[in-house]
Amino acid sequence: MPELPEVETVRLGLAPALEGQRLARVELARADLRFPFPPHFAERLTGARVLSLTRRAKYLLAPLDTGETWVAHLGMTGRFSVEGAGRISRPGDFYYAAPPDPKHTHVRLWTEGGLAISYNDVRRFGYMDVIPTAELAAHPYFKDLGPEPLGTELTGAYLAKAFAGRVSSVKAALLDQRILAGLGNIYVCEALFRARISPLAAAGSVPAGKLAALARAIREVLEQSLAVGGSSLRDYAGADGAQGAFQNAFSVYDRAGAPCPRPRCVGVVARRVQSGRSSFFCPKCQG
DNA sequence: ATCTGGCCCTGAGTGC
DNA sequence: TGCACTCAGGGCCAGA
After folding, report:
1. What is the CA radius of gyration of chain A?
2. Which residues contact A43 (CB under 8 A, 6 or more apart)?
3. What residue is closest to C9 (Cα–C1')?
4. Is the CB of A56 under 7 A from strand B?
5. Residue A234: what pLDDT?
6. CB half-sphere exposure, A248, CA atoms < 13 A
7. For strand A78-84 and strand A23-28, is the pairing parallel, antiparallel, or unpaired?
8. Which residue among A8, A148, A192, A209 is the one 20 to 30 A from A156 at the CA level?
């Protein structure tokens, strides 16, 4: 589900509810999500103070004053919501998705400050863990992740080096979290459209000039999405229940059959399955 | 080493 | 209305 802008939006909504707060109570409705919860999960969080809420790739990280860090990945359909006194809200700037079905609310946490935080995940592709903070960087979740696309490492030169010799598609390469961490199907399709690169092209064959454009396009599409709270399709909502608006700005994603939005291009958006996922692109101007 | 396909899970949408 | 089938924002794993 959520890609970088959506996870970051959830982080921004959740941070005011969690940062500096002590967790008073933690309840699990089941023993596993995608994976089993780690041993004594609730006990290790209960009584701990959340020092901060950060994000790496599509992971949320809450370092605790116990020396451990609570890690959460939203998978495809995971969402957090916050309720209670002092509820977070930004008046007037959002509307609500259908409330999450309580049958898929798997984790509830209460802060000392009186907020109830729920984690709901229909498909249970999400997962949570508790890892010693000092061991995070070496942990299998994180050790092979590539750079953050919004950081300074993402340049045309970086992509050229990362793509060199790769025969697989540029689409697959951008979805590979070891090359760039945080992109998913939507933003890869959108960035390739903006940079006029076919998702079918071999990663190693894309010329340097186009890779510089691609680096700019990735940054641009993520920043524009972030500015409007991400994209809301189906299950996603921010921690305050707000829907993002970037889905209204898609050029190609989920628009098969629509005319290419590029001025004066007469192409039609196509859908092709690549490594099990749909790619959307304009065969006329993405070459 | 790289790469593809299957799979985890539930629900929504489509076509008959 | 019901049934069968396809598809969905992710990522791990096995096998080629």
Report:
1. 20
2. none
3. A1
4. no
5. 62
6. 5
7. unpaired
8. A8
Per-residue pLDDT tens for A12-39?
A: 989 999 999 999 999 999 999 999 999 9
Model confidence at A111, in pLDDT bands (50, 70, 90)? Answer: very high
| End-to-end CA gap in chain A | 28
Residues 202-261 of A with CB under 7 A from strand B: 203, 234
Q: Which residue has the tokens 């359909």?
A: A77
Q: Is A31 exposed, middle or buried (0-12, 13-18, 19+ CB in 10 A)?
A: exposed
Q: Which nucleotides of B are covered by protein (CB under 7 A)?
A: 2-12
Are the CB atoms for A247 and A1 separated by under 8 Å? no
- The catalytic residues of A are 2-3, 58, 277
Residues in chain A: 287
Q: Which amino acid is at A144?
A: D
- What's the CA–C1' distance between A22 and C7, in Å? 41
Predicted structure pTM score: 0.94
- pLDDT at position A83 is 81
Q: Are A267 and A283 in contact (CB under 8 A)?
A: yes
Selection from A80, A58, A39 nearest residue A1 by Cα: A58
Across A224-240, average pLDDT: 79
Q: How many CA atoms lie within 13 A of A26 on its CB side?
A: 16
